[in-house]
Sequence to fold (283 residues):
Amino acid sequence: MLLGVAATAQTLSTQPAKGVLWEVKSATNRVYLFGSIHIAKADFYPLPAAVEDAYQQADTLAVEVDPTDPSASQKAIPLLTYAAPDTLEKHLREETWRNLKSVTGPAAEQFQTLRPAMLVMVFAAQFFSQQGYDPKYGIDLHFINQAKADQKKLVELESMEFQAGVLGGLSDADGDAMVAEILRGLRSGALQREAEAMIDAWKSGNAQALAEVLRDAANKDAGSKKIMKLLLEDRNVGMAQKITRMLEAGDKAFIVVGAGHIVGANSIVNILRKQGLQIRQIK
Fold:
């Protein structure tokens, strides 16, 4: 998921990236779980030796989805867009649509085919790009490309179609809340501050700080809390189940998921810990 939208290069720390890495052990096996930043910079690399060592020992790379699969993207797009004559404007409150037009100007009409979650992703990509971030430096994509070169087994914990279904399936009220929140954040500067705090926490390997930023973002209001549950916590259950099966099957796996999924009270890490698995963060 997104770790922020409007972080600026001027304010973000230039420290080398540590990331958040966990070792998960059962009685007979262990896997490694690493938090991803989906849009990053070239200077995030090289990653720490502990992370690269965890990857090298694995014969399987597991990720949320493989974004390099064009057929998967084709299946996802219809779930994130409206078919004519339906439009975005019909699914937003008048106030939210008016605020969107005030922020984007005439360009608002170009977004009429996008569902709310897709619109937020477009905003995220645009703002990160303006500050030098690029999907091609994303942590998950880095390891996907490496795994293909190394001929490791590649496993998806979800599918792009599933994720698009979750994002595109938001109710009008939830979609409106998502758009309204990002517009408020842009105007107030809150998105910039959250993004800075999130990325700095990830780069320093501070799982607690990252969890606190996400918790504060979720607790802004009832809408934010509901969306955070839908987009993070509810999905954590299914991904944790698949990781458990990989442990039971004896897979030597390196698992990369969005960093927001592996910190906090209802994270994948805590779900696995409640199952009796031994878990420690590797610094």
Notes: The radius of gyration is 19 Å. The first helix runs from residue 49 to 56.
